Amino acid sequence: MGAALPLGEAAPVDGRMPDGVRVHPNVDFGVYLHVPFCSVRCGYCDFNTYTADELRGARRDQYADTLIDEIGLARGVLEAAGGLRAAQTVFFGGGTPTLLPPEDLARMLDAVRDNFGIADDAEITVEANPDTVTERVAGSLAAAGITRVSIGMQSSVPHVLEALDRTHSPENIATAVAAVKAQGLDVSLDLIYGAPGESLDDWRQSLDTALSHDPDHLSAYALIIEDGTKLARQIRRGERPAPDDDLQADMYELADEVLESAGYSWYEVSNWARKESQRSRHNLAYWRGTDWWGFGPGAHSHLDGLRWWNVKHPAAYAARLADGSSPAAGREQPDADARYLERVLLQSRIREGLPVADLSPSGRLGVASLIADQLIEADTAIKGRIVLTRRGRLLADAVVRSLTE
């Protein structure tokens, strides 16, 4: 059911912003809509999600109405903080958003449109498990205004899917992709590498299978073992092997080589796209530090340097909104040092890079050694931007330490 919420100061019942936090019309605004429902819990998952027997009073069939209430509350908060902006991106994440009826997703999207507006060229994404995407569902998503579907493929190898507790078969992936493409929507495939028992040949098979579906975008994430998950317990008991760091590095290098050869370019450490227009604009907004409001239990938001997060459980979330109260559990305003560290951490991970001029004097002193160690591109650094090499992407944390210590 997700990691613990961060510490912070209490958020006010009405959700109002602190003095000095303002809406800036020239800063892009994104909307994240969290749907916290899953049919089963994957053994590696640490997200704030709930199966049917974990809801404890919360009702899936009332969820859209509850989230729409939060959207209405947000409108008043933003108006008081300086005004409204049309959403440039909308992202339905989870959980499994497509466990809800498409009509509920459409109503949630309509509420965003009615309260904030949605830009004419907005990117509107829905995450989906392959076994929830039918021709009817894809058609309904397209009719609602969805432009992009991110399908949780994870692997095409049955024993790897089993190790991850994924319920779909490899055949479901082809069916889901075909249904989405038939509606003219962009397709992204999400992959995970480094699962227990997965070999380099298994990983190559998954990459080749993903490419055979001709997606517009791919994400590939190294498996991380999170405390409290089923997989963490299995590894602790010796039932499954822990991920091998060296093998995961080899898998990343293989992914970058294979995807680059197929015409995909990396634009963030774990993300590749065929065209610049097919990059995930919503996720890039997080890396660039623009504004977004996250709706739903456990969702996080950011506005003008203020960060806040909602209560985690769907029942607590619904109870707050039923009382007319903000569901925000806490918030914080990071100081200058924390903002600097975050800016270096996030912007150094994207292909457009981090301006050298944004570094502290001590950070600029570290640039030469990063070039010598082939962790950043030499020509780009000389022109004033920090861009990671492939080796640097594998050692991104070390690059950040060098630039911030």
TrEMBL record:
<keyword id="KW-0349">Heme</keyword>
<dbReference type="GO" id="GO:0004109">
    <property type="term" value="F:coproporphyrinogen oxidase activity"/>
</dbReference>
<feature type="domain" description="Radical SAM core">
    <location>
        <begin position="23"/>
        <end position="265"/>
    </location>
</feature>
<protein>
    <recommendedName>
        <fullName>Heme chaperone HemW</fullName>
    </recommendedName>
</protein>
<comment type="function">
    <text>Probably acts as a heme chaperone, transferring heme to an unknown acceptor. Binds one molecule of heme per monomer, possibly covalently. Binds 1 [4Fe-4S] cluster. The cluster is coordinated with 3 cysteines and an exchangeable S-adenosyl-L-methionine.</text>
</comment>
<dbReference type="InterPro" id="IPR034505">
    <property type="entry name" value="Coproporphyrinogen-III_oxidase"/>
</dbReference>
<dbReference type="InterPro" id="IPR004559">
    <property type="entry name" value="HemW-like"/>
</dbReference>
<keyword id="KW-0963">Cytoplasm</keyword>
<comment type="similarity">
    <text>Belongs to the anaerobic coproporphyrinogen-III oxidase family. HemW subfamily.</text>
</comment>
<keyword id="KW-0411">Iron-sulfur</keyword>
<keyword id="KW-0560">Oxidoreductase</keyword>
<dbReference type="InterPro" id="IPR058240">
    <property type="entry name" value="rSAM_sf"/>
</dbReference>
<keyword id="KW-0949">S-adenosyl-L-methionine</keyword>
<dbReference type="Pfam" id="PF04055">
    <property type="entry name" value="Radical_SAM"/>
</dbReference>
<keyword id="KW-0004">4Fe-4S</keyword>
<dbReference type="GO" id="GO:0046872">
    <property type="term" value="F:metal ion binding"/>
</dbReference>
<dbReference type="GO" id="GO:0005737">
    <property type="term" value="C:cytoplasm"/>
</dbReference>
<keyword id="KW-0143">Chaperone</keyword>
<dbReference type="InterPro" id="IPR007197">
    <property type="entry name" value="rSAM"/>
</dbReference>
<keyword id="KW-0408">Iron</keyword>
<dbReference type="InterPro" id="IPR013785">
    <property type="entry name" value="Aldolase_TIM"/>
</dbReference>
<keyword id="KW-0479">Metal-binding</keyword>
<dbReference type="GO" id="GO:0051539">
    <property type="term" value="F:4 iron, 4 sulfur cluster binding"/>
</dbReference>
<dbReference type="InterPro" id="IPR006638">
    <property type="entry name" value="Elp3/MiaA/NifB-like_rSAM"/>
</dbReference>
<dbReference type="GO" id="GO:0006779">
    <property type="term" value="P:porphyrin-containing compound biosynthetic process"/>
</dbReference>
